[in-house]
Write a structure and sequence with these properties.
Blueprint: H1 3-6, H2 12-27, H3 36-55, H4 63-84, H5 87-90, H6 92-97, H7 103-127, H8 142-166, H9 170-183, H10 196-202, H11 208-218, H12 226-250, H13 254-257
Helix pairs in contact: 2-7, 3-4, 3-7, 4-7, 4-8, 4-9, 4-11, 7-8, 8-11, 8-12
Length: 258
């Protein structure tokens, strides 16, 4: 589909303009511009790599790749979750002036962050062999796990965006909870190190099967087991159903609240 025909789809121009405006606003006047979007996650990953390679060394030979893989996908979740809280409140003026499907604001926010994330993923692809990664047939199933991951994040984004309109302290709560959730997600530690009686509690972390699946594909070169497929899709569509229901039930009252 050509760009011209794509723009003929209703509201596509609006989404393009919202994404373009967000990118320009975020890095307007910055000398390095788009490159700043990679600075924080790269430094963050490098910090964890130094700490768990040299200060508290990990015996796993694939640990550097394991760490970077987990952190890359965590970055996508945490950036969208944090930014989504203020998507609707930040677009209050537009919502009051123009009548359009409000979910497009969520879509534009996700597309903006995903665009930045793709550049980080491109760097990951370049570094992948240097980190000890081997391209295997398991890579072919990666889109089938990335898709439900994006669906899951979309549900979270709708929940948080409308939740922040109703409860303005939600953004601060999310910023506190995300670092705690990081340490409850297998990014700097392996699931094999956790005793079986404690795994019951960790299974309440919805990110667990996603991060495990990405590690199996990229680090160990294996296709995740069937039960992992079931888990990620159930979690993804459950998140979308809950977030979508809350969004639809409250979205018509946005003008009054904003």
């Amino acid at each position: 589909m050509h760009l011209k025909s794509l723009r003929e789809i209703p509201y596509v121009d609006l989404v393009f303009n919202l994404v373009h405006k967000e990118i320009r606003t975020r890095y307007f006047g910055a000398a390095l511009g788009f490159a700043w979007s990679l600075g924080s996650p790269l430094i963050n990953t490098l910090t964890y790599w130094v700490v768990f390679t040299w200060i508290f060394p990990n015996k796993n030979p694939n640990f550097a790749l394991y760490l970077v893989t987990g952190n890359l996908h965590w970055m996508l979740f945490t950036q969208i979750s944090s930014n989504s809280c203020e998507l609707l409140t930040g677009a209050g003026g537009l919502i009051k002036k123009i009548r359009f499907p409000r979910v497009l604001i969520i879509a534009s926010g996700l597309l903006t962050t995903f665009t930045f994330w793709l550049s980080a993923f491109a760097i990951y692809m370049v570094l992948y062999p240097l980190l000890g990664g081997v391209f295997t047939a398991a890579w072919w199933v990666y889109p089938l796990f990335l898709l439900p991951y994006l669906i899951f994040i979309c549900g979270v984004a709708m929940f948080l965006s409308i939740g922040h309109v109703l409860f303005r302290d939600l953004k601060h709560i999310v910023d506190v909870v995300l670092p705690l959730l990081f340490w409850l997600t297998p990014i700097v530690w392996h699931v094999d190190l956790i005793h079986s009686d404690k795994m019951f509690l960790l299974n309440f972390n919805p990110l667990l099967p996603f991060i495990q699946s990405f590690s199996q594909i990229f680090v160990y070169g294996t296709v995740p087991a069937l039960h992992m497929w079931v888990k990620v899709y159930v979690i993804a569509f459950s998140s979308l159903a809950i977030g979508g229901y809350l969004f639809r039930s409250r979205v018509n009252k946005l003008v009054e609240i904003l």
